[in-house]
Amino acid sequence: MAAATLHDVGYAPRLAATGFHPLDGARFLRDEREADERLVRLVANHSFALLEAEERGLRNELASEFPLLKKPLLVDALVYCDMTTTPDGDRTTAQDRVAEIVSRYGDDSVVGRFIHRAAPEIFASVERVEAALAAQPR
Q1: Closest CA to 115 of 132, 129, 96, 130
Q2: Beta strands in the chain (DSSP E)
Q3: Contact predicate 62/27, CB 8 Å
Q4: How far apart are CA 136 and CA 70, in angstroms?
Q5: Angle at 33 between CA 115 and CA 72, to 5 degrees
């Protein structure tokens, strides 16, 4: 729950050192708040951030400072929370969320290129979480 709440903290203007919010947010949580390593690594890598880091020339920096967690369902759960919620906090589908991101940033922007590359992985993560939820006893 903490990662879902804090994953976009790096957008805060005071924290925007690199302009890449997963990296800036994770550094803030690690360096200024001494947050739990698992939380910091989730924030750093949320929603396939390594792909966007690559677009920005920051992949090695992100990967070396904040290695991916080996907890696939936990990682998927954060993707699910991020990609099935609008910027205003309303529920949406992953497909509509990706379309909203593209419309906001444009196809040819860094974010637009990243989200097009990440979309198949995002959709697969959301499907895995939905399958896991459906398998739970009611």
Answers
A1: 96
A2: none
A3: no
A4: 22
A5: 40
In order along the chain (138 residues), what is the average pLDDT of each group of 10 residues? 97 98 98 98 98 98 98 97 97 98 98 98 98 95
Q: What is the dihedral of CA 15, 21, 23, 25, to 10 degrees?
A: 50
Greatest Cα pair distance in the chain: 46
Contact between 126 and 79 (Cβ < 8 Å): yes
Count CB atoms within 10 A of the CB of residue 96.
13
Residue 68 one-letter amino acid: L
Q: What is the number of other CB atoms lying within 10 angstroms of the CB of residue 69? A: 16
Determine the distance from the C-alpha atom of residue 14 to the mean position of all C-alpha atoms in its chain, rounded to a whole number.
Answer: 20
Cα 12 to Cα 2: distance, rounded to the nearest angstrom: 17
Residues 6+ apart with CB under 8 A from 26: 10, 40, 41, 43, 44, 65, 66
Q: Is the pTM of this model over 0.90?
A: yes
